[in-house]
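pipeline stage [seq->struct] | target=O-fucosyltransferase family protein | organism=Fraxinus pennsylvanica | residues=569
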Amino acid sequence: MGVASKAWRYSGGLVLSSLDFSIPQQQNAKQQSQKLHFYNCFLGWKWRPTVAVPWTVVCGLMLFAVGLISLFTGHVASDLEWYSQRLVKRTWYYKLGRGSRAPIDVWQSKFSNFYYGCSERGPHFAPAVRLNQQRTGITDAVVVARILNATLVVPELDHHSFWKDESDFFDIFDVQWFISYLSKDVPVVKKVPEKVMKSMEKPPYTMRVPRKSDSEYYVEQVLPILLRRRVVQLTKFDYRLSNDLNEDLQKLRCRVNYHALRFTKPIRNLGQRLVTRMRKMAKRFIAVHLRFEPDMLAFSGCYYGGGDKERFELGEIRKRWETLPEISPEEERMRGKCPLTPHEVGLLLRALGFENNTYLYVASGEIYGGEETLRPLRELFPNFYTKEMLAGEELKPFLPFSSRMAAIDYIVCDESDVFVTNNNGNMAKVLAGRRRYMGHKRTIRPNAKRLSALFTARDKMDWSTFARKIKSCQRGFMGEPEEIKPGRGEFHEYPASCICQKPPKYYVVNKNKGDQKFKTVLNVSEAESSNKIFGNEREKSVLKWKNRTTSNEPVSITEDIDHDDFLSD
């Protein structure tokens, strides 16, 4: 990973303390049992077999069953999604402001007005008890402290990675805001008090937990050590917490990521100035996280036609990751694991319908191949800008620090009207999740697996055919509110537990009349009686919607959409 994603990789130390710095250390047995009761609530019931059965027999039966099922269902599964999209009924909201097969609005989702971010504490989420790749790691560190009912020491950032950035938490994030905002969730201190360190018989215990460990693991494996040693340091804390947690803990993740983690004032000020300068030139702009730096290409193992020079240069960089296996560049491209070239990103955007006069902000570090690699993208979008072009001398204090440079890119990408990712890295995931949380601003993720074959064959078709196929490939990758079912995907990218639907008190209907665009606001009663918008056949759907919103049943306003119409020609 390079400059534009350094700020989102956290592999430094997490320090947890079991100490209550505001009460005496010695506690009676009753107090201790009360605390352990909190911990034990995370321990699940475990089934214990009474009859010993050889594991070889169990595994053999399981494999046989899986094979038998696959034999009968393999062909059906491949077409299941295709059939499901055509058999479902279309609900009333999908008819709002829609005539025939209208093309997608590439700047904004028509359904974004129906959603908003919601991460407030639930009624049963108790106040904090004083016991004692960066954004994702820090966010999960707070949640782990909550699970263990421990005090969190402000995390240390990794200073020994590929990027050699000496920035620490205090240099990137507003630490006082962080501590204050989380005061009702988790107690946070800047460092372990000196008197506590001196009173310890041994130094803090250091350990590394497996990736994506669940709550039970922390309670069973980490908590006993924390209670015994009083201070525990968890190292390399990136993606060390399960994606699947209860709703209260998921909402805590959102409060940390989208509210508590605020950049320092110098970073915020410069980022906002760049946004203002883009807005002065254009009312709307696209931000592209290009991610075509040498380290990213080396890590991917992909090949881009640069001959022996490219193979040698990227091969030398790849050696820095000792655990990376030998892979086939051709197979990686077929699997959709290769970042698009700047030229391919430009072709994608033009095919989707963005005009030549669209303003582009490119978030990136050092592009492999330099200006020659960027030239095709500049030709497709001449209004091409970077932080270096917009900031000039103002950027000098930040230049030696890749994390702070990435934070500036983060702000501009977050504020853009459309955000385009070019890989599945940490920064892209976190930004995609934040933009969903903040109102489902358009976020485009290239469907690289299907696009790779299309780009290879683009010289064999005319532009209209190419554009039509691009739109077809991108169905389900345009950032619509419910492109993925809640609970699937990485939570930091799809924070479903923190996104709520607005109650249908009124509906904003986008309508076109000639060259003019206007909005009509309808309340529920008007919507039910409006044959012009819904037609008589839609009244039952509206009534069903009203009944569901007053019950405890989960509501989905896009459950019955025929996605074929989202990207019509």
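stage status: PASS
auto-comment: The mean pLDDT is 76. The radius of gyration is 26 Å.
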